[in-house]
Write a structure and sequence with these properties.
The chain is 33% helix and 16% strand. By secondary structure, it is α+β, with helices and mostly antiparallel strands. It is globular. The two termini are 25 Å apart. The model has no long low-confidence stretch (mean pLDDT 84).
C-alpha cells in the first residue's frame, strides 16, 4: 500500500467521524491555547466557539465512533479502499476498527514529513501525554502500526 492510498483511507475515515462541540472546545483550549471570552453571552462567545470548532475540525481530530457507527463506516469503506494492510482495521466476519468506544476518547491524525496521514493517534483522555498509534497487530488480516518517527510520536 502506498502512502497516498493509506492517507486517503484515513482521510475518508476521519471525514465520516463526528466531532462533538464539547470536545472541540476542550481541545481548542487545552491543545491550541484558545481562551474563552470572559463574557458568557453574546457574539464574542459564539465567534470564539465557531473559531475553536473550525480549527479542531480541520485538523481532523475526531471522537471515537460507537460500535454501530464503526461497523457502518467500515462496511462503506470496504468497497472503496483496500483495508488489509491499513493499521487499525481487521477482519472478523466483517471489517472493523480496533477501537473500544468505552475506553478511548479522541483520534488525531499522525502525519509524515509530507503531511500525509500515516496512522492515527489514540488519546484515552484529553491531556494524555503518551498517545498510542492505532494498530490491529495480532488480529485477523490486521497490521502493525509503524511509527514514521520511531524516536518520538508527534503530538
Amino acid at each position: 500500500m502506498t502512502p497516498t492510498q493509506r492517507h486517503l483511507t484515513y482521510l475518508y475515515l476521519l471525514g465520516n467521524l463526528a466531532l462533538s462541540e464539547s470536545l472541540a472546545r476542550q481541545v481548542a483550549q487545552s491543545w491550541y491555547g484558545y481562551e474563552k471570552p470572559k463574557m458568557s453571552f453574546g457574539f464574542g462567545v459564539r465567534r470564539w466557539a465557531a473559531n475553536a470548532y473550525t480549527r479542531v475540525y480541520f485538523d481532523f481530530i475526531r471522537n471515537v465512533p460507537s460500535i454501530a457507527r464503526n461497523l457502518i463506516i467500515c462496511d462503506a469503506m470496504k468497497d472503496k479502499f483496500e483495508l488489509e494492510g491499513v493499521a487499525g482495521f481487521y477482519f472478523q466476519n466483517v471489517w472493523k476498527l480496533n477501537l473500544d468506544p468505552s475506553r478511548v476518547a479522541i483520534l488525531k491524525p499522525y502525519r509524515d514529513e509530507n503531511r500525509l496521514i500515516c496512522g492515527l493517534l489514540v488519546y484515552t483522555y484529553l491531556n494524555d501525554k503518551q498517545p498510542r498509534l492505532l494498530t490491529s497487530r495480532n488480529l485477523p488480516k490486521g497490521t502493525k502500526a509503524e511509527p514514521y518517527y520511531p524516536e518520538r510520536i508527534l503530538v
